[in-house]
Amino acid sequence: MGACIWVVFCIMVHFIPINGLVVKSSNIQSVLHRHKREFKWNMMYVTENMSSVSPISIGKLSSSKFNRTALFILRGEGVDQGEKGIFTVNKLGDVFVHKTLDREKKAIYNLNVLAMDEMTRNLLEPETSFQVKVMDINDNEPKFDQNEYNVSFFEGPYTEAKVLTVHAADPDDPTIFGHAEVEYKIFAPKGFYIVETTGDIKFLGTLDRETNQTYKFIVQAKDMPKHSNTGFTSTATVIINLKDINDNKAKFTQSTYTFNVSESTAPGVNIGALLITDKDEPQNTNPQFNPTNLAGVFEIVEDEDLKNGKIILRKELDYETRSSYSFQIEVTETIVFPDKDDGVGFSKATVFINILDEDEPPVFSLKEYHFAIMENVDKGNIGKVNAIDPDTAKNQIRYSIKEDSVDSLGIDSNKGIISIRKLLDRETKAWHNFTIKATEINKDGTQGKESFASVHLKILDENDNPPELNGTTHLVVCEDSQPETVVATLSVTDKDEMTLDTRFTFHLKEENSNFTLVSNLDNTANIIAKYGGFRVNEDDILTLIISDNGNPPKSSTTTLTIHVCPCIDGDRMCEVASAQMGVSVQALLAILFCLLTILIITLLFLLRRKLKKEPLGSLGKGVGEIHEQLVSYDEEGGGEMDTNGYDVSVLSSAWQTGIRPRPESQTGPCLYATVQKPAIKQNMAIMIEVKKDEADHDKDGIPYDTLHIYGYEGQDSLAGSLSSINSSSCDSDLDYDFINEWGPRFKTLAELYGVDEHDDASMY
Ligand SMILES: *[C@@H]1O[C@H](CO)[C@@H](O)[C@H](O)[C@H]1NC(C)=O
Ligand SMILES: *[C@@H]1O[C@H](CO)[C@@H](O)[C@H](O)[C@H]1NC(C)=O
Ligand SMILES: *[C@@H]1O[C@H](CO)[C@@H](O)[C@H](O)[C@H]1NC(C)=O
Ligand SMILES: *[C@@H]1O[C@H](CO)[C@@H](O)[C@H](O)[C@H]1NC(C)=O
Ligand SMILES: *[C@@H]1O[C@H](CO)[C@@H](O)[C@H](O)[C@H]1NC(C)=O
Ligand SMILES: *[C@@H]1O[C@H](CO)[C@@H](O)[C@H](O)[C@H]1NC(C)=O
Ligand SMILES: *[C@@H]1O[C@H](CO)[C@@H](O)[C@H](O)[C@H]1NC(C)=O
Ligand SMILES: *[C@@H]1O[C@H](CO)[C@@H](O)[C@H](O)[C@H]1NC(C)=O
Ligand SMILES: [Ca+2]
Predict the structure, then answer these.
(1) Is the CB of 51 under 6 A from ligand 2?
(2) Among the ranges 35-39, 585-589, 629-633, 645-649, which has the highest mean pLDDT value?
(3) Which of 360, 351, 151 is CA-nearest to residue 264?
(4) What does the pLDDT look like over 688-717, one tens digit per residue?
(5) More exposed terminus of the chain, fewer Cβ within 10 Å: N or C?
(6) Which residues is 312 bridged to in the sheet?
(7) Which of 747, 753, 744 is nearest to 723 (CA)?
(8) Which of 152, 213, 241, 243 to mutate to test the pocket of ligand 3 (most atoms within 8 A of CB)?
(9) 27 φ, ψ to 5°?
(10) Is 137 in the pocket of ligand 2 (CB under 6 A)?
């Protein structure tokens, strides 16, 4: 090596004597011009990477002006600029280099030199610049831009595809042949090649990701091309990752698939997967399933993640109907490149689905049973329900009624016959809705599955209820009612079923002279007053018969009481009898008890008075007191009309016993409360006559009957006294007509004393 460098050194280090030429030209010029003083060279050369123990002379500075030793002064790069101490010069002008130079670091050094006389220090040559040029040797290898090239590339068949370009740079002097020139080489699997000069890596052939997903190889860069024994090399790694393309068909992993499915599996459930295989990545796996003969029972759906074929159940299964299914299925896929069939997997498969038997609950022949039966029966059968075990075991079925509340019906537990146990009455219960339970009895006697069915039993109507009057039987009519007045509109209730054809007819058992019954032809009828103008307290009794048009027809008889009531401008002045009916028996008893108590107390009080006090002094006062008593007894009464309040029985009793009720001692009032009611009305009329007669002929006492009350009332009135003292039938020529003009309040009075149409028999 040392020898080699020396050779190079010998070649390179000697300076090129161009001064001769300069001299020459200066000689020619010297003829014409003043002689120019100058150094004889302006460039020196030094080879890089030269190293030696002693400084190496790289040239001599000589001047055309002087020819002796001088004092050379060197300045510039490598001397006093940049890295110092590289260059020195001696008195003879020899320039030395002291250090190893590197062209790749600094290729040219700019220097200045001047020469002075050693003795005089006179400037022999002015400062002149020159260059030291570092000569290149091939000491650098070409370097790749990256140590590792990592690229992705689509798989596929290629005739010529550029995969990537690699590049290496050589810092050596490109002007010198071969030093910086790069030549590429590749050490790669078959198919890859590199363009030597450009570094383009290309591929020819088929890249299959499924065979080899990544390729990793070395590329080399070398300088000094064409010189295989010299030059520097360097390498880099190339990694090629293949990207997937859909170039493999999806296939089934098996040629037959078998699944076991319970018959109770609900539709919509995934039964199982037809596994497929595809070497491509999932995004490039798009199988299409073409099944045949699915019979609408199954559906094949692609699994989104795994791309398998899912078998989805679409219909209910029944082991007893069909215990197995099978179908063919084909899988296809559209791919980018023609498939290279490697024989893996199956494009067609057969699927077998076995239905597994389940213990199912019994099945009724109907979900709902509807029966109908006429009412009023208490035995017999209604109908039959039927349930079977759908399983092959065909277990016995036991029937029962689920509801405990159903007691009028029963069921034969073996045959399912529903029978009547109690009388069925539509009016009590029109529908019997209940549930029947069917229970399987297993072969070992235990109870198995059960199921339910509902039964709707309709009880059909029979005309077994008479129509009845809807409303009160106590009717009221105003005494001054006009003819044709509607007293009441009668409507009907009938517990039996009423249809559009149901008709009710009304008629009276006996014709009535005052009222008629007129049908409205809409299942109602009106009671109409024939003439109008009734007499108070004359109740009419109508016997009403209501019939329906059922088969057989039913009818009812109702007694209607029509009560005549005084009315003022259409307002009834009496209480409607029906309203009193609302009072309970207890209340009535209580009231009676109260009345009795008051009666006894009053009696006792009056007895005391009778014993202690003097008899009533004057007639007016006595009558007034009596009246007070009467009023207090009968506040709830209806005035003179109220026979309960104004108990005339005293008269009757007096008459019956023959004792005159007007004693001299004026004890009369006590007797009012002690006597009983008269039994018969007619007796009353006669009795009153007798009484009146007695009174008329009594010269020394007030007549002791109720009529004297009016005598009192009339004391200060316009009417004067109405006392029966003057009310003999003989002097009935008195005109009481003016009472009629007093208004309704005195109507009763007017009637009593009226002279118009009534006779005296109506008076008490
Ligand atoms: C310098 O001396 C040499 C011989 O030693 C001679 O050839 C040359 O001509 C001289 N040059 C000058 C300028 O004196
Ligand atoms: C540069 O110099 C060193 C030391 O002297 C030597 O080992 C090396 O081979 C040289 N390089 C070249 C390219 O000559
Ligand atoms: C190459 O690049 C891919 C992504 O493009 C990365 O996944 C892989 O790890 C890289 N390989 C190396 C060796 O760096
Ligand atoms: C896949 O590539 C690697 C490295 O490039 C290589 O070692 C291997 O043999 C290749 N495999 C096949 C099957 O080509
Ligand atoms: C289906 O059931 C049969 C017996 O019933 C059994 O032999 C078989 O292994 C089952 N197959 C599957 C896929 O479970
Ligand atoms: C019984 O069932 C029938 C028919 O579904 C229905 O019309 C009726 O209202 C039901 N009766 C009762 C009490 O549930
Ligand atoms: C009976 O009369 C009442 C009151 O007038 C009425 O609300 C009801 O609907 C009647 N019933 C029938 C069955 O006509
Ligand atoms: C109905 O007429 C009869 C005579 O036909 C009569 O005696 C009776 O008082 C009348 N009834 C009414 C409430 O007026
Ligand atoms: Ca592919």
Answers:
(1) yes
(2) 585-589
(3) 360
(4) 777 777 767 766 555 454 444 444 444 454
(5) N
(6) 270, 299
(7) 753
(8) 241
(9) -60, -45
(10) yes
Tokens read off for 249: 């068909």
Question: At 604, is the pLDDT very low, low, confident or very high (cuts 50, 70, 90)?
Answer: confident
Q: Which helix (H) or strand (E) holds 130?
A: strand 123-135
Phi then psi for residue 18, to 5 deg, are: -100, -5
Ligand 8 close to Cβ of residue 514 (< 6 A) = yes
Nearest atom in ligand 7 to 498's CA: 13
Q: Are strands 447-460 and 368-374 parallel, antiparallel or unpaired?
A: parallel
Per DSSP (E only), the strands in 551-683 are: 555-565, 567-568, 571-572
List the residue whose alpha carbon is closest to atom 14 of ligand 5.
Answer: 260
- Please measure the distance between the N-terminal and C-terminal CA atoms of the chain and give it in whole angstroms: 178
Q: Which two tokens stand for residue 36?
A: 């120019």
Residue 748's pLDDT is 61
> Looking at ligand 5, which residue's alpha carbon is closest to its atom 4?
260
Q: Among 477, 485, 511, 513, which residue has the most ligand 8 atoms within 8 Å of its CB, making it the best to mutate?
A: 513
Please compute the mean of the pLDDT values over residues 634-647 and round it to a whole number: 48
Element (H, E) at 601: helix 585-612
Q: Phi-psi category of 56—alpha, beta or left, where left has phi over 0 and alpha has psi -120 to 50?
A: beta
Q: Is the pLDDT of residue 763 over 70?
A: no
- Using a 6 Å cutoff on CB, does residue 252 contact ligand 8? no
What is the C-alpha separation between 544 and 519, in angstroms, rounded? 13
- The whole-angstrom distance between residue 394's C-alpha and the CA centroid of its chain comes to 43
Q: Which residues lie closer than 8 Å to 204 by C-beta, 6 or more apart?
A: 158, 159, 160, 161, 191, 193
In this predicted structure, what is the pLDDT of residue 682?
Answer: 60
Ligand 4 close to Cβ of residue 215 (< 6 A): yes
C-alpha to C-alpha distance for 501 and 708, rounded to whole angstroms: 64
Tokens found for residue 212? 């080899």
| pLDDT tens, residue by residue, 24-33 | 222 223 333 3
Cα 454 to its chain centre, rounded Å, is 30
Ligand located closest to 494 CA = 7
* pLDDT confidence bin for 98, thresholds 50/70/90: very high
Work out the pLDDT band at 420, boundaries 50, 70, 90. very high
- Pocket of ligand 8, candidates 511, 528, 540: which has the most ligand atoms within 8 Å of its Cβ, to mutate? 540
* Nearest CA-CA partner of 707 in 608, 599, 698: 698
For ligand 8, atom 10, which residue shows the shortest CA distance? 514
Q: Which two tokens stand for residue 436?
A: 């029947």
User: How far apart, in whole angstroms, are the C-alpha atoms of residue 423 and residue 23?
Assistant: 160
Contact 64, 40 (CB under 8 A): yes
The mean-pLDDT minimum among 41-45, 201-205, 404-408, 472-476 falls in 41-45
Query: How many angstroms does the Cα of residue 210 sit away from the middle of ligand 4?
Result: 12
Whether pTM > 0.85 for this model: the answer is no
Closest CA to 627 of 660, 583, 668: 668
- Which residues are CB-contacts of 490 (< 8 A; sequence separation ≥ 6)? 469, 470, 471, 506, 517, 524, 525, 526, 527, 544, 546
Domains observed in the chain: 2-25+32-135 (2.60.40.60), 143-243 (2.60.40.60), 251-356 (2.60.40.60), 363-460 (2.60.40.60), 468-579 (2.60.40.60), 628-764 (no CATH)
Average per-residue pLDDT for the chain: 78
C-alpha 471 to ligand 8 mean position (Å) = 24
Pair 406, 455: CB distance under 8 Å? no
AA letter at 143: K
CB atoms closer than 10 angstroms to residue 44: 22
Asked whether 222 and 189 are in contact (CB, 8 A), the reply is no
Q: List all residues whose CB is within 6 A of at least one atom of ligand 5.
A: 258-260, 354
Distance between Cα 239 and ligand 4 center (Å): 12
Residue nearest to atom 9 of ligand 3 (CA): 150
